[in-house]
Amino acid sequence: MKQRQLEIILQQLPKPTKPNPHLEQYTTPATIAADVIFTAYNWGDIQDKVVVDLGCGTGILATGAFLMGAEKVQGYDIDPNVIAIAQDHAAAHKHSIEFYTQDITSIQTTCDTVIMNPPFGAQKANLKADRKFIEKGFEIASIIYSFHLKKTIPFLEKMITALHGEITLQKDYEFPIKWLFDFHYKQVVNYKVTLLRISTNR
User: Fold this and answer.
1) Of 173, 169, 161, 120, nearest to 143 (Cα)?
2) What is the dihedral of CA 119, 120, 122, 123, to 10 degrees?
3) Is there a contact between 61 and 53 (Cβ–Cβ < 8 Å)?
4) Where are the beta strands (DSSP E) in the chain?
5) Domain residues for 124?
6) How far apart are CA 100 and CA 74, in angstroms?
7) Of the four listed, 16, 30, 32, 166, which is most buried by Cβ atoms within 10 Å?
8) Which residue in 113, 3, 4 sits closest to 54, CA to CA?
9) Cβ neighbours of residue 88 under 8 Å, at least 6 residues apart?
């Protein structure tokens, strides 16, 4: 499958029907999701690997990993509404992906690769929320792919070093977030985000 073909498929995934602003449930654009999946694939971190999507939402990254030949894919999210959507879509398309409603701190599994778009911590009630996701990734995986606001990367570099990990790739994107909640005042706001590939040295 080519990257453009994957992008077209991922564009068709359902969106959250009742997004929660405190959980920062902003859908990863299909163009970015497909690029991340192909990046991970080209690094040898998808095909025939066990892949986990933390904070999976309706499953765009999990679905991409499955379509690119992962041996096993699991998706976890605290919101039962998005998990129900992800499960229904996977069943309808015969995608063998396991989706679970679970808080990030209570997940107990192991995998080769974590691919995730954690909360950016843009809401005051959610500051530094991405830290929990990074820490869980270190617990369960050998390799992590994770999005973060570009301005937070210096802090994350220190955190990852303290956890004895190594950043082996940084890739920047313009991440558009469309008007979704009443407190938004623009139709679209573009955030500078950075994808990190992290070796946990497990």
Assistant:
1) 169
2) 20
3) yes
4) 50-54, 72-77, 97-101, 113-116, 143-149, 166-178, 188-199
5) 3-12+21-199
6) 8
7) 32
8) 113
9) none
How many angstroms separate the CA atoms of 46 and 50, rounded?
Answer: 8
Question: What is the distance between the terminal CA atoms of the chain, rounded to a whole angstrom?
Answer: 31
Residue 139 phi/psi, 5° resolution?
Answer: -70, -35
To the nearest 10°, report the CA torsion of 35, 90, 75, 59.
40
* Tens of pLDDT, residue by residue, the chain (202 residues): 999 999 999 999 998 876 665 556 678 899 999 999 999 999 999 999 999 999 999 999 999 999 999 999 999 999 999 999 999 999 999 999 999 999 999 999 999 999 999 987 644 444 567 899 999 999 999 999 999 999 999 999 999 999 999 999 999 999 887 655 444 455 677 889 999 999 998 7
Looking at the structure of the chain, the number of domains it has is 1
Phi, psi of 45 (to 5 degrees): -105, 10
CATH number at residue 52: 3.40.50.150
Going by C-beta distance under 8 Å and a sequence separation of 6 or more, which residues neighbour residue 2?
Answer: none
DSSP-assigned letters across all residues of 15-63: PPSS--GGGT-PPPPHHHHHHHHHHHHHTTSSTTSEEEEET-TTTHHHH
